[in-house]
Each structure stands twice: as structure tokens, then as C-alpha cells.
Amino acid sequence: MKFLHRKGVFSIGGIIFQGEPRIIELNSMRVEAPAAGNIIFFENEDKPGVVGKIGTYLGEKGINIASIHLGREKPGGKAIALVNIDSIPPDDVIEGIRKIPNVLRATFVKI
Predict the structure, then answer these.
(1) Backbone angles phi, psi at 71, to 5 degrees
(2) How far apart are CA 111 and CA 86, in angstroms?
(3) Cross-sheet strand order for the sheet of 29-34
(4) For residue 7, what pLDDT band results from cuts at 50, 70 and 90?
(5) Which pLDDT does position 74 carry in this prediction?
(6) Is the dihedral of CA 2, 43, 41, 8 positive or negative?
(7) Are 27 and 10 in contact (CB under 8 A)?
(8) CB atoms within 10 A of CB 52
(9) Is 0.70 surpassed by the pTM of this model?
(10) In the prediction, which pLDDT does 93 show?
(11) Which one of 8, 21, 46, 69 has the lowest number of neighbouring Cβ atoms within 10 Å?
């Protein structure tokens, strides 16, 4: 399924597994994550430290991470993450993630 986002088009694939909806693909990259709750989706260059910087940043902003689910097209290429968080983040937090080196885009979704 493709969705129009204000910064372009992205695709998402999913399944129902044991009665629970799961995301299994984003932008042609495999990932396996629950399709529920508060989710920050980000796409980045597959470089060391990006996920750690995002985790540290969210911690500094008082946002607790419930789970992180990662995928990538190939080593050193583009990568994605779905970060399930406990609360709805302020808009400035998402904007701050976008400013982290090697982050290509970040979006918040509540499912």
C-alpha cells in the first residue's frame, strides 16, 4: 500500500499475526514491528551511531522507548526504524530528530 506524505510517497506492507496487526515492510525494506501505539518512523543512512543518537536524544527529552524495530536495504545503504514510544512527542522533538546527522526523514504516527 502506498501513502502520500507531505514530503513524498512511502509504501507500507503488513499482516495480521495471531490476531495482531504487524508492519512487515516500509519503503521496500523488511522490518517487523507492531502496528499499534505511538510510533516514530525514521529513515537514515546506515551508519554507526545513528540509532544510539536518536535513543539518547529521546531520553534527554523525557520520552521513553518501548521498542525499536530496524530494517535496511543493504549494509551502508538506507535504513529504517520504527520506534514505539510511551507518549505523543511534541513537534519540536520530531524536528530535532530530523537534524541528527545521517537522518533523512522522521515522522510520528499514532495507530
Answers:
(1) -155, 160
(2) 13
(3) 2-5, 8-17, 20-26, 29-34
(4) low
(5) 92
(6) negative
(7) yes
(8) 9
(9) yes
(10) 96
(11) 8
